[in-house]
Amino acid sequence: MSLKDHIRVMVVDDMSASRGLMEQALEQVGIRTVVTCNSGDEALRQIVGQPVHLVISDYNMPGMDGLTLLKKLREHKQVMRVAFIMVTGTKDPSLMAKGREFGLNNLLFKPYTSASLKTCIEQVVGPL
Questions:
Q1: Domains in the chain: ranges and CATH
Q2: pTM to 2 decimals?
Q3: In whole angstroms, what is the distance from residue 115 CA to residue 102 CA?
C-alpha cells in the first residue's frame, strides 16, 4: 500500500470554494482521507483530538491565520511533529522566513495545480 492510500490530511481554509478546490486536487493526486476545517481554531481542536499526518492551511484567514495555527500546533506536544504546508497568494519572503521559524515544512503558492500540489507534498512526506 502506498503512502497516498493511508495518509490523513487536514485542509484548513475559511473559504468553502478554496477547501473544495484543494479537496479536488488532493483526490486527483490519489489522496482520499481528507478532513476539512473552516478556521484555525476549529483545526486546532480537531487535530489535538484526532491527529493527522499533514495539515494544508491557508495563510490568510480571519481570527487565527495559518502562521498562528502553525505556531500553536508546534506548542502542543502530541501534535508538534505534524507536517504543515501553508497556501498563500503572497510572495512575501518574510512570510517564508517567519514560517520556517515556526517549523513550516513547505509553502504552496496560489494559483496551484494538482501537479504542483503533489510536488509540494512529496517534498515533505516523500513519494506518493
A1: 3-125 (3.40.50.2300)
A2: 0.96
A3: 26
